[in-house]
Amino acid sequence: MKRRLLLVLAVLLGFTLIAAACGDDDSTDTSPEGVDDTTPDDGEGSGSDDCERTGTVAAPVSVGGDTTGGDASDVTAAFIYIGEPGDAGWTWAHDQGRLQAEAATGAKTLTINNIAEGSPEFEQAVRDFIADGANAIFATSFGYMDAMETLSGEFPDVAFFHATGFKANDTNFANYFGRIYQARYLTGIAAGAASESGNIGYVAAFPIPEVIRGINAFTLGVQESNPDATVTVSWTSTWFDPAVEGDTAQGLLDNGADVIAMHQDSTAAGERAEAACARWISYNSDMSEFAPNAYLASAIWNWGPYYASAIESVSDGTFAGGGQWPGMDTGLVQIGSLADDVAAETKTLIDEKSGEIIAGTFDPFTGPINDQDGNEIIAAGEVPPDFADEGLSLLGMSVFVEGVVGSAEG
């Protein structure tokens, strides 16, 4: 990957996907699994006999297990989390990757939870870790980026790794993320095939390129299996707030959606879908156990191999900053389990598209693709560049594709 691209790989990526500590005061659950206790009592609570589907609960995909790495016992790697690891979600996935990397490399790892973006606690945590001997710092939230840049200049002998951002240097400061939109596309195929109404709801976080890109890829997958279906987007302006996310999902369900997707870290949208006898696409980790009758599929992260490789690069002296944005071919991003009632032909289509994505012969954003107004934005056979100073790019995506209902401006 060219150095220029490495340094800008996530421009306007915004970030993303993290379990922000912004739970509603009425909810007693502050962990990423985010159980929402505000589901209306409509006689069809979670697991209702009216919604129960026999044989729909597939075994959750367990990421990792085969993570390998060289001896890096001379590395002490510190991980800074915006939330608690909990049982599922963004921070949980990172923490699973940390544990896998620790076992694979022999490195010592340290963690701290619930560090707010832009807070003085973040800088103090980094300084404390370095004082305790940390020579690699991993910060897993977009809002940590500017502080990481400053601290990397102050501590040139420490390796700084920032998830989801776009700033980096060519010495000791890197950014990293993954092409999760590839897995989003595959889950869209499952959602489109499952929707009887053709009305699919999407509980969206913030109107930034990473979220918009995911919605678009998901919608293109929906259209692959159900060309007449639409995806209605409702914004929450949250990364983690079970009450808000549950209520937003409920609004989509009340308007006729029979499948719900989401971009937050809680399971609230899935719980509302289950109570309404609808279906659900989860995100960040395989959440099939949390709303088993609603669950269809998930787009998930497997951070272990990346973290092992990154820690090893610090140990062997090959780390030199820059950026990485790998995809399904590396295993960093994956599709989770499919519900057992997903039709055989749908599974076959998902397998075919997955194979093509991994082989590099297909990208979800292969044209022709139109925007919401029917204007062609990607020509036939073309794929937008990852980054461009002008025009459409994957990392700067700011418009919705045809089939999305709602505003990309939030």
Walk me through the structure:
- The protein has 410 residues and is α/β, with parallel strands linked by helices.
- The protein folds into 2 domains: 51-60 and 179-301 and 336-405, Response regulator (Rossmann fold, 3-Layer(aba) Sandwich); 76-178 and 303-330, 3-Layer(aba) Sandwich (Rossmann fold), CATH 3.40.50.
- 31% of the residues lie in helices and 16% in strands.
- It is built from 10 helices and 15 strands.
- A hairpin with a 5-residue loop joins strand 13 and strand 14.
- Helix 5 (180-194) packs parallel to helix 6 and helix 7 (242-254) runs parallel beside helix 8 (268-275).
Count of strand segments: 15
- Give unreliable regions as ranges: 1-49
For the biggest sheet, the summary is: 7 strands, mixed
- Terminal residue distance: 33 Å
Provide the number of structural domains. 2
Write down the CATH topology of the largest domain: Rossmann fold
